[in-house]
Amino acid sequence: MSDLLPYYKEILTKELVKKGVKNFEISSNCDNPNEDVKFIIYSPVIRNGEKLNRDFSPFKNLKAVLSLYAGIEDLIENKTLKCPLIKMIDKNGLTNSMIEWCLAHTLRLHLGLDKHILGQDGIWRHKIKPPIARDRSVGILGLGELGKPVALFLKKIGFKIFGWSRTIKNIEGIKCFFGSNGLTEVLKQSEILILLLPLSKDTRFILNDYNLSLLPKGSQIINAGRGQLIDDIALIKKLRSGHILNATLDVFQQEPLPKEHPYWVLPNVTVTPHIAADTPVESSSKVLARNIKFLLEGKMPNGLVEFKRGY
Ligand code: NAP
After folding, report:
1. pLDDT band per the 50, 70, 90 thresholds, residue 31
2. 274 an active-site residue?
3. How many CB atoms neighbour CB 90 within 10 A?
4. Which of 152, 38, 311 minimizes the C-alpha distance to 161?
5. Backbone angles phi, psi at 230, to 5 degrees
6. Partner residues linked to 176 by β-bridges
7. Per the residue annotation, which of 54, 105, 110, 226 is the catalytic one?
8. Of residues 236 and 32, which shows the higher confidence score?
């Protein structure tokens, strides 16, 4: 159930053979479901601007659905999906991409690079001195497969890191918080706030007007999680008032972001087109093959989604 089969077929076949998986066929024919289909590899397929709403119920012997992506909110809500769901955890590909994107934009906002990149106007602004990371607090909402390595890399550069997760965490060098009091604490400290939460009923619009007002005046936001984590109207208000200095947004409530959306024209918003982290074919094929092998052997795959908690 993916448009990406042509890119995957050869490499995934090779990886499955390497893992000793025998007697398999990889196909994109979902129209004639049969009982031989044991695994579905999934990525959202868009037709006429809409995500195809998949029906998993005809696949009677399905052992698992393996998502090519880390965000699985649409699958969690799919009532026809009754088998285990595995999200993509790809430390050698997807995770690295996310680290690089978050690092780049955190440093860009921290150093105020836009002033120089966008302001080539003949003025010698030598009085703007670069700040240093150890004097900057960065908050990270979500300390999972992506948030934790991002936090650790930023820590290595010297930033003061405040992290927030659902369950209590102990990560060396990171001030970790959880629960609603913890969220307040992290927001109050965050001069730069990075969103790496999954979308669930508990995180939808978590950056609402109230929570945005807890951020220090002049703080900057980086959203690499999901568009629905932010109340756009509240954010736009805060960007216009100057309470939020900049928002760098990779994900949106509607994608592609409509041409007429204010985010395209606000001078203190940077839009990137959901490219923070891609799933590379080679590294993710290894992950898929390993998980399929584990599932065939009755072992626990890496990335098993807990439907009840919503991610
Ligand atoms: P993950 O491993 O499941 O981690 C999620 C983190 O969020 C965990 O630390 C979790 O807390 C925390 N969390 C979840 N619900 C929470 C709540 N209600 N309150 C506080 N913390 C909560 O997910 P991931 O693999 O890091 O991915 C995160 C998200 O990034 C994905 O869901 C996807 O939406 C997004 N993403 C975006 C791109 C892109 O290109 N922009 C690419 C890949 C992924 P616990 O640790 O306590 O469980």
Report:
1. confident
2. yes
3. 26
4. 152
5. -115, 135
6. 163
7. 226
8. 236
pLDDT band at 94 (very low <50, low <70, confident <90, very high): very high
**Top mutation candidate among 166, 207, 208, 257 for ligand 1, by most atoms within 8 Å of CB:** 166
pTM attached to this predicted model: 0.97
Angle at 261 between CA 258 and CA 262, to 5 degrees: 160
**Residue with the nearest Cα to atom 19 of ligand 1?**
166
Q: Is the pLDDT of residue 231 over 90?
A: yes
Tokens of 61: 């012997």
Closest C-alpha to 140, from 125, 155, 120: 155
pLDDT confidence tier of residue 202, bands split at 50, 70 and 90: very high
Q: For residue 52, what are the contacts with CB-CB under 8 A and spacing of at least 6?
A: 44, 45, 46
- What is the assigned CATH class of domain 95-271? alpha beta
**So what's the architecture of 5-91+279-296 in CATH?**
3-Layer(aba) Sandwich (3.40)
- Mean pLDDT, the chain, whole residue set: 96
Please choose from 85, 201, 251, 311 the residue to mutate so as to test ligand 1's pocket, defined by most ligand atoms within 8 A of CB: 311
Q: Hey, CA dihedral for 156, 160, 166, 170, is it positive or negative?
A: positive
pLDDT of 97 strictly over 90: yes
**CATH 3.40.50.720 intervals, the chain:** 5-91+279-296, 95-271
- How far apart are the C-alpha atoms of 48 and 165, rounded to whole Å? 37
* Residue 178: band (very low, low, confident or very high) from pLDDT cuts 50, 70, 90: very high
Distance CA 219, CA 195 (A): 14
